[in-house]
Design goal:
By secondary structure, this protein is mainly alpha-helical. Helices cover about 50% and strands about 10% of the residues. Helix 2 packs across helix 3. The protein is globular, with a radius of gyration of 14 Å.
């Protein structure tokens, strides 16, 4: 695990054509990851942009943090943070 490995993976996904990639910079406990994912998807499904959905999920995770894990700080968006669920930008750019 590490920043270089994660950035490399994100780069490969972006080069393969995905519009955005959400990753964690270090391993996260399953409970914290599930809580973050639930909050993130809640906002994303309401039509919130990708970057803002991550920000809101990070804020919630930080407020609920226990034991100094800092899971909320690990999540990073690579790509366009303004994307919304259902955007078809990839096909339009080709």
């Amino acid at each position: 695990y590490g920043l270089a490995q994660n950035v490399g993976m994100a780069s490969r996904f972006l080069l393969a054509g995905v519009d955005a990639y959400l990753g964690a910079l270090w391993p996260i406990h399953a409970e914290s990851a599930a809580s973050f994912a639930s909050e993130f998807l809640h906002h994303l499904c309401k039509g919130t942009g990708l970057g803002e959905a991550v920000r809101q999920a990070r804020c919630t995770a930080r407020a609920e943090e226990q034991g100094g894990e800092l899971a909320w700080a690990s999540y990073v968006v690579y790509g366009d943070p303004l994307l919304r669920l259902g955007d078809a930008q990839a096909g339009e750019r080709m």
